[in-house]
Amino acid sequence: MIYQGGGVLFRFYCLVYYLYARFAQCTCFFCRAYRASAQIAMYAVSFQHVCLLFLQCSRLEDQRCVFPSSLKRKGGGVEHPGIHEILKQGRPFPLLILPPLGGYWIEGSSHSLPPPGSDLPVSNEQLRILQSDPTARLYRKHFLGKEHQNFCAQDPKLGAVILSSKLEPRTAKVRLILRTRSGTKHQLTDTSVFPHFPGAVEMAQMLCEELAVERFFPVLYLKASQLLVNFDEHVINNNFKFGVIYQKTAQVSEAELFSNTEESSGFTEFLDFLGEKINLHNFKGFRGGLDVSHSQTGSESVYTKFRGHEIMFHVSTKLPYTTGDSQQLQRKRHIGNDIVAIVYQDEGAVFSPDIITSHFLHCFVAVQSDLSPSGDTLYKVSVTARNDVPKFGPALPIPAVFQKNQHFREFLLTKLINAEVSCYCAERFSKLQERTRAALIDTLYEELVLHSQSVLGPLNDKAGGTLDEGTADKMENSSSGFLDNFKTFSLALRSPQRSRDALSRGCRSSSIAIESASDEKR
């Protein structure tokens, strides 16, 4: 009812939000997902989905919090009683301690230096960057620009189902990709074991036994391949932003950490090691939400490129300091909305993840510098993450102490990227991913059906399911204009011989949609 009564206003808000997400280069979950859905079919996003995106992205005031009076201190913020007890016990201090209520795991608790003359252990583990979805690039790699077939169906329980199939050259194997709301499955199947070449339903049930559709219908849309690529690859993120928090000796509250304005020589050395110091004004690379036009988020930051990824670091001491704001929201609005943060510690500092109040920070990497007997710089490392974040590599050696060299830099950057990818498995982000994927695949299904119907005519109940009322209305309203022209053009391309071949094959395998490089160029 809201949608029908305010269609123009609704589309205006959609456009405004899309332009913001597109040109602000925001890389949060919500903006990335919305950009992907807009590429598939901007007009098909429901009012509820847009409301969800607005609510999820309005998070500045969510960072402001009220502390219990028993934990407040003069400088503002909250003290951590466990850290005080650790500091009273004297050295050596751990880099990290668990919160009193738990909820986190720690990796890397041993930092004892080896005896003089002994070498530090070196990890031989391959520095492999995790992928949020290993199936994301399979369609581009194996299907795009090659002869293959795409099918759609609506399952009564699973919802929209989209199948891609391709016969591998010179083999009897078929490569399959099945997309559902719950995820994407990939399989290379040997068809020689079947008494006849399997149809679309049989192929889909090889990957998903609970599939209950009677038939699939073919996708006949010249731009379907690009829509499928956009859907599959919407989870790929080549840009990352990480917080960098500076903790001085004996600092035990969030207010103290975010109020630091001066950098120690060790912290400056670490930032130079981490990346390149860049001027934000007119910066052309990935900006990680920082202002590059009016210097409202500071004048400089730290940035690097690593294995095809761009990384912007939100350094607490380089973000604007606001006099009179005990919680320093101009700093916390960026670091508090990151998923992973580095905590660089001066000697004698102890950190606990519950010091920082944030719904989004799920992992902290504590780094503390030290000196070897020969005077070389060493770095101690500990990692902590919420319990619902799975462990991730590369694993820290024992002791978790590294020499300052290129190997450690690559190790640390790999660890940070894998930390964020693993955090996507946490409950907060996985549920959001599920909702986003469900909305996107429904949008993709409707888009493919709308364009295929312009060629095939109305879809009956037996051809893979029924359309919902919204999709049917869109099809009815699309009877003129672009879709009419598209239908006329498509029908003109179909020769009588091609039509006869399609009908004869359709009775056997329900697979007549073939896309090739030449189809795409037309």
Automatic annotation (TrEMBL):
GO terms for biological process: regulation of small GTPase mediated signal transduction. Residues 228-444 form the Rap-GAP domain. Coiled coil: none annotated. Keywords: GTPase activation. GO terms for molecular function: GTPase activator activity. It comes from the Eukaryota. InterPro entries: Rap/Ran-GAP_sf (IPR035974), Rap/Ran_GAP_dom (IPR000331), Rap1_Ran_GAP (IPR050989). This is Rap-GAP domain-containing protein. It comes from Leptobrachium leishanense (Leishan spiny toad). GO terms for cellular component: cytoplasm. The keyword Repeat does not apply.
